[in-house]
Amino acid sequence: MRRSDRSDPPPDGPAAPPARPLISNIQRFSLDDGPGIRTTVFVKGCNLRCAWCHNPECLTPGHSLQFHAAACTACGRCAAVCPRGCHRLAADGRHHLDRTDCDGCGLCARHCRAGALQVIGRYYPPPELTAFLARDRRYYAESGGGVTFSGGEPLLFPVWLRETMALCRAAGLTTAVDTAGRVPYAAFQAVAPVTDLFLFDVKLFTPARHRAATGVSGERIRANLQRLTAAGAPVWVRVPVVPGYNADLRELGRVAGFLAALPGRAAIKRVDLLPYHDYGAGKYADLGLVYGVQTPPPDGDLMREAFLLFENLGLPVKQET
Amino acid sequence: MEATGTFAARQAGGASLRLITKDGAVPTEELYMSDTIRYLTEVKDGFHDRSQIPHRDEVYKKIFAENPDDLTALKFAKAFAAFVRVKKINIDERDILAGFTYRYTYGTTLPVLMPDDYDPLYRPPITPDSEREYQTTLEYHGLAPDSPEAAELRTFLKGVDAWLYKHWFSGHILPGYERLVQIGFTGLARIGREAVAGHEGVRRDFARAMLTTSEAALEYIGRYADLAEKMALAAADPLCRRNLSRMAESCRHLTQGAPRNFYDALQLLWFGQELMMVENIPVSESLGRMDKYLWPFYERDVREGRLTYDEASELLDALWIKFSGNLHSYQAVTVGGCDEEGRNFENDLTYLIMQSTRKLMFDQPLIDLRYTDGMSERLWNETAALIKTGTGFPGIFYDPICIQAKLDAGLTLEDARDYAIIGCVETGCAGHEYTPTELVHLNWPKLFELMFNGGQAQMQDYFAPLFERKELDSIASFTEFYEWYKSEFVQFTELAMRAIELVETMIPWRFPTPYLSSLMIGCCEQGMDVTGGPCRYNNTGISTCGMATAVDSLAAIRRVVFEEKMLTLSEFRDVLNANYAGYDEIYHYVNDRCPKFGNDDDEVDWIMTDLVAAFSSVINARRNPRGGHYMTGLYSVEDHAKAGMLTAATPDGRLAGSFESNSMASVQGKDLSGPTALVNSVVKTDLRAAQNGMVLDLKFSPVFMEKSKHVEALHNLIDAYFHSGGMEIQFSVVSRETLLAAQREPEKYRNLVVRVSGFSAYFRSLNKTTQDEIIARTEYAAI
After folding, report:
1. Handedness of CA B518, B520, B522, B528 (dihedral sign)
2. Which of A273, B134, B295, B425 sits CB 3.0–4.6 Å from B758 for a disulfide?
3. What CATH code is assigned to A64-120?
4. Chain B contacts of A131, Cβ < 8 Å?
5. For residue B562, what are the domain limits?
6. CB contact under 8 A, A31 and B782
7. How far is B455 from chain A (nearest CA, A)?
8. Looking at chain A, which residues constitute the CATH 3.20.20.70 domain(s)?
9. Residue extent(s) of CATH 3.30.70.20 domains in chain A
10. pLDDT at site A282
11. A99-129 pLDDT tens trace
């Protein structure tokens, strides 16, 4: 099994991503990515490597081949068409996949009649994407919802993102960007005029722990949040609570302290503490990846204490009811 | 307990009747339930006596033999009277209301085949006796067996046996209970006497038949008065004595006059319903707008200090226990909506009714909510609390669209605003509308096996002559195939309507229902059985089955045969006749790679829009022989499971004998783009055409409903759906794990009530295919 998606540390400087992002999924009736009923667009490509990532198909910017073994009928069509010999039928009649030379061309998936093979990643020109997102406008209107760009890291594609969100705005849709924040501040500046809300992840505070959990330093993330809030852009801060990584009151207290000390903290409209879940674990095997986190969700007592920690500092922390 | 027991009116001298609570629904465990109700709930299943069904049939046979020359309606009426004179009656010592009903059985009039060994704990598989219906119709019309009419009737009725059609009559009615509680059986008897005096000949006989049933009802109530008086005298416990005395006094009064108070009205309503089941098949005998016609009694009793919220709650609970005696019988209660001026209508009874169901969790009665934009937050919260129980209640109907559909069906504005729900999702004007809503369903997917095989069905010996025979491989384009399908589909619908016109005109003379007629306004007055067209509205329902299965099949044919050219049409026929055995690749391809209705995909959704328009235009435009017209229904009760059991494999990848899609929903598990996409697909079709009702079922995981944010999103989803043209929506909230466990160990889940189609039922009472169908539905969650 290839592990490069997980283990290769991303370059610490600004990457040179393609200008056009691939979309892994467009999730309608999304209720947890901002206010109301939303449609969330998941962009491929991320410059963090959080151990608990629940969207592993969004780690790399290129096409990913997803193979769902349970659906495979071993018909052999993929083996017949693959130009790089990644698929073969063994003597026992079973299908084998070797991803070493796979470049995600997708020929096999187009020939798979069972739906076991799927190439993840499709480019949408902004007008086409906007028209699709507008299909649920009546639900946004009834609920105060809209569209959210998530990922991956959507701010790796500021030009495309700005153009798409400008079209969404023109179509009367409200917009949100869900970011991990590790991008040049210019990316925020590019999209801020067409963004109604930033969902900003702050995962840890302690530098060594941040690097251990996400593969990168948290310095730029914090600096960006400081500038963004100082500029008055409305922000919902999201803090995943992951046992083994940050689920202790000491670390969460530091995160809370950092937020409370921000000069522009009035721009923080809401703080969500998101208990870890393992819903993404099943996707790893289909992508030929290994999921390394083995932890139960944080217990209710910890979540309650953490909540009080934020609330006591006057932060607008919300608890799901 | 403050939350449930106190009235503003009692505190403030009667100015207002609003209950003092916050808008939030009272938690179920805090709702009032008396010890008596708890006891009756425990013992209620012991009241059943299966001997009453053959007993009734013997009495009917005897009376028919004694009165050979009477008008048929009079024979039925005399038999009804004779039976209720000797029918077993029963009162439990701790009962609150008099009366009981034996379990689900067949009516006196519908020709059905009845198994000898039916088990009252489960639903008997009763089927129409189409041979008897065929012979009676031929005899009545004097038709020769070799006449073209007889041939069509044969194709239709044999098609019923083969589940090309489903066909049913009797039941499915909103009796005039509002008038009954206003004037009592004494009032009906007075109308009957006037009609007998005012008519001559056969009309006098019809009127006499109805009068006979009203007098029989009075006599029957008198028997209960006698029994209750005797038991009250003997009762040792003071509470029992008090309740039995109240019951006796009320029954005695009801033999002499109209209801005076809330208790009388409920008691009379139950007698009305119990006697319906003596005569009519106990299917969809619906109660109408109970919060509207009982309101004057409730309001007056509360205002004058005779009744509290909790006491009313106990009486409704007691009535619910009566309803629960007939499993799976679609007794629909309608609440909410608007008044005759179009203003929002809700009151304490609206909440009490929903609370009784939330507490008791029976499968009866069905609860249907008329949803308005002006309804209170309080009512929404009651609705959400009921949805969360997982029982599938309430069915939610959007007032403006339903009212428009009733206007299109010819109702006056005032009558349209007063609509209520019949059985599953049909709407009617109580007391004024006789519409056999279940007269015909066309099983859309069955047409494929007939078309592919020259009219020969594949799972039974049934041949239906096609209107146009075609050499399969001569069909050059998808358009040509599609037009052929549509043409057969329309013509088989028209054939059914011609056939049932022969049946409908025979019914008042061969299978009349005099007791039901006595309850309906205009029947006695005109001296005509309810089935003969004397009501203000006399329409006929023609409905669907397996819609998305057919739509997806057409999309698969286009993709596989005409676009990808993977198979010829005759090769596709071979695949289907082999039930996909040996054709794994095609099976997976059509299942997983072809476009599916329910994903907001215009490429396939247009087929639904177009087929519904074609179906409804031939139906809604046609007049029926009773002076009314036909109405389209876009729902399938549980026929999508039953019809599926006898329908061969379909081009969408559905295997032979498997369930079909449910009403307006996608094929089970094929709606992969979430509820908004499904709703978008559905509202592309003009649902106002569904004058006989429609169903859209959405299944959510119970975990989803735990977050108030999600419940709010559900509220928004409902609003967006309704504001885009939606008519009905309902929610199943039960997990796959629970359903699988209930299938394995039914005894542990005896009380599990689930949504089926336009109704809810005990899961254990459903056949396995229906159970599998519910399990296979996509369960929406939010991650």
Report:
1. negative
2. B425
3. 3.30.70.20
4. none
5. 440-694
6. yes
7. 31
8. 21-61+123-315
9. 64-120
10. 83
11. 999 988 889 998 888 889 999 999 999 999 9
For residue A144, the distance in angstroms to the closest alpha carbon of chain B comes to 9
CA distance linking residue B101 with residue B49, whole number of Å: 9
Domains: count for chain B: 3
Query: B624-653 b/e with 16+ CB inside 10 Å = b?
Result: bebebbbbbbbbbbbbbbbbbbbbbbbbbb
Predicted local confidence at residue A10, as pLDDT: 44
User: For residue B126, what pLDDT is reported?
Assistant: 62
Beta carbons within 8 Å of B217's beta carbon, 6+ residues apart = B84, B185, B188, B271, B272, B275, B515
Same domain for B672 and B706?
Answer: no
Q: What is the pLDDT of residue B283?
A: 87
Closest by Cβ to A73, choosing from B585, B593, B708: B585
Report the run of H or E that residue B369 belongs to, with start and end.
strand B366-371
Question: Are the Cβ atoms of B720 and A138 closer than 8 angstroms?
Answer: yes
Structural tokens at position B80: 């009804």
Domain boundary among B657, B674, B694: B694
Residue of chain B with shortest Cα separation from A137:
B720
Backbone angle region of B305, left / alpha / beta, with phi > 0 → left and psi within -120 to 50 → alpha: left
In contact, A141 and A41? CB cutoff 8 Å: no
Q: Least CB-CB distance to A37: which of B586, B717, B723?
A: B717
By the 10 Å C-beta count (0-12 exposed, 13-18 middle, 19+ buried), A14 is classed as: middle
- The ipTM of this complex is 0.91
Closest CA to A197 of A238, A157, A255, A167: A238
CA distance B700 to chain A (A): 13
Statement to judge: residues B489 and B569 lie in one domain: yes
Low-confidence residues of chain B: pLDDT under 50? 1-22, 118-123
B573 and B608 share one domain: yes
- Is residue B334 domain-shared with residue B418, that is, in the same domain? yes
Domain boundary among B678, B694, B710: B694
C-beta separation of B541 from B198 below 8 A: no
Q: What is the pLDDT of residues A56-77, one digit of tens each?
A: 999 999 999 999 888 888 889 9
Same domain? For B410 and B527 the reply is no
- B328 and B277 both lie in a single domain: no
Evaluate whether residue B637 is within a structural domain.
yes
pLDDT, tens digit, 9 for 90 and up, residues A253-299: 999 999 999 999 999 999 999 999 888 888 898 999 999 888 899 99
DSSP secondary structure string for all residues of B278-318:
HHS-SSSB--EEHHHHSHHHHHHHHHTTS--HHHHHHHHHH
Interface test with B, best of A110, A113, A236 (most B CBs within 10 A): A113
> How many angstroms separate the CA of residue A321 from the nearest CA in chain B?
5
Using a CB–CB cutoff of 8 Å, tell me whether B132 touches chain A.
no
DSSP B389: T
CA–CA separation, A124 and A107 (whole Å): 20
Question: Of the CATH numbers 3.30.70.660, 3.20.20.70, 3.40.50.970, 3.40.50.2300, which one belongs to the domain with range A21-61+123-315?
Answer: 3.20.20.70
Give the pLDDT confidence score for residue A115 in this predicted structure. 83
pLDDT value, residue B183: 98
- Decide if B623 touches A, using CB distance below 8 A: no
Q: Is the same domain home to B507 and B474?
A: yes
Sequence letter at residue A279: Y
Is this model's pTM higher than 0.90 or not?
yes
Strands A38-43 and A147-151: parallel
B589 touches chain A (CB under 8 A): yes
User: Residue A228 CA to chain centroid, in angstroms?
Assistant: 20
